[in-house]
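Quick board copy: two proteins, each given as sequence then tokens.
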Amino acid sequence: MQLKHALLPIAVLAGSGIFLAKRQFAATEKRNRMAIFQDTIRTVHQHRTEMQAVAAKAAKDNAKAPGTETAEPVNRTSIDLKGLAKSLAAMDKGGVPDMQALFKIQKSILDLPPEDLSALVADAARLDVPENQKNSLIMMLMQGLAQKNPKAAVLVGQSLLQEASPEQRQMRMGGMQTAFSQWADQDPDAARQWYDAELAAGRFENRRLDSTDPLRTVFEAALLPGLAVKNPTAAKDRLLAMPEPQRLEVLSNSRDFGEDAASQKLFASLARGTLKDDQKTRALANMAAGIQHGRELKDVSEFLTNVSATPEEKTRILPEVAGFRLRSLVWESDEPLTVKGIAPLRDWMEQEQRGSSAKSLGESLASVAGSGKFDQAKAVALVTALYDSSPSDELVSTFIAGSRAQENPGLYRPLAEKIQDPSQRAKVLDILSPKP
């Protein structure tokens, strides 16, 4: 009985993966299609790896499962690239793909050896389909190749970028970025040596990776966490060798630093040791906002404790976290923002820094006003309700000062007139007055 489970036929394996993929799709209809593809590829890869491990153990014990058959070899000519491109086009228009067919194609992709999959990426680049479909197809194949052999994905991505037009290059960088990040996770020394050699050799010619190229930022960000753990001084020196604006970009994109207390402390040390005060606080705020995404506010509290955030740093960090939190609620929930709905966020900010919640909430609501379904009128109505439930001049003045209030001063004026302090009310009303 155990051996039958050890060597599950491909059909059974595919069925379990399709079930998981359907659940993933149902739960994430609003997500980018590439994220969906990446999830299903990861699902296939995980299931196949588990089955291979169990099967290897059975083979080692000289066991054989009755009633199972060996799958036919897969070759790249069996992959229907144009059919896959049509699926991408359907998803572009909001359609729901055939998940069973999608899973079958992705399993075939992962069954190809790296050299064949690299060639398949090149085939996709030459495919006679609309450019947007071609770019999406390349991204999907690159993700599959990166799961098997991230170095191979980086090399084929480099080849594609060298041959691409500026518009194509902008669209195709994502696959190479993902692959390089995975390579840096698996073998940071090899990835760093390759990257430094490419920079030194100038192989990108007039598209060289300089401080203006987003690939430079992503590559440096992928390398930095591993280097910092191994040699914090070398990581700091690498950052200091960059132009100052790029240091902030690299640190802000180094998300692996947020995984545990030790890495968070390491991140804070690098930020404080390589950035100026304003940029240092911005880096910490970006990290805190990234930590709260998909997690709880208590995780941000732990981060603030781990990095010993100062009151000045919290003044910048709290509105940033609140802004990200509110934007998530606006874009990912069908429910409108309400006083009751954002009360936990307001309470959390007050807990982290007493007396700061009104200003922080005003700033964050101003940054979100006009996003998605949360238009300016709804933002003003929410702040009015917040004021009526718990009057705060600072909440109103901060919100109006940070909003695009001059676009519609009549909408904001009744709210401004609620401010009780005469001098503060006059300043805010002046913001709403017509300017020559």
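And the next:
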Amino acid sequence: MRSLLLLLLVCLSVSGFSQVVTADRSVLDKRTGAGMYTEIKPKLENPNARAYYMEQQWQLGNIEYEGEKIISNQPLKYDIVRQWMEIKMDDEIMVLPARTIDSFEWFNNTTSTATKFIKTRGFEMDGDIPPVGFFEVLFDGEVQLLSHKSVQIFHANSSVSVSGSHRSHNIVYLEHYYLAKGNKLYKLHKKRKHNLYLFGDKQDQVVRFARKKGLLFSRRADLQQIFLYYNSLI
């Protein structure tokens, strides 16, 4: 039974874009007139502003926003600092505010898989608040493994967590991992011992598995194996 569950979870985690419908610019123009895409605006270039993208290259992907609207099969870039999605349509770049986006995904031609992102709003943390923006879904099961990326700018004598666009000297991209059970969210620590309580009565089995495989809680590929194993136990 556990072997069957493992196989099923692996199959579910690998998804393609076989059902994608292209939304070209002419269709978007017509829908804008009907009030379908009123949040999408042309990008206004600012020569003094710097973009901080989640991925530097354009990614072909889909967006679900405002509950039921979908943009499919378009080149995308997400700006972490400005908190908007850039959408390449013909020779023009449009932007969609992050507050309107429910989820998005982009396709990796090299691995033939889709990477999914979900909004951080709606999750709850004890004694803390969820980060702003989107989680990357690294493992999707009864218990999810999520990743969040942010940007920190280091100025001459201080460091500032970015919520707007600024000139900077040094830039660091930060990534933190989270465990999600339903809408409950728990930040993972790099040290194994601080995370064990999250696995309840399965923690001894998780420890033995991680030790046997040499897996660390500080590496995403290792965490994916740990969560795959843990979900097979529950």
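Board note added afterward: Confidence is low (pLDDT under 50) at residues 1-36, 162-168.
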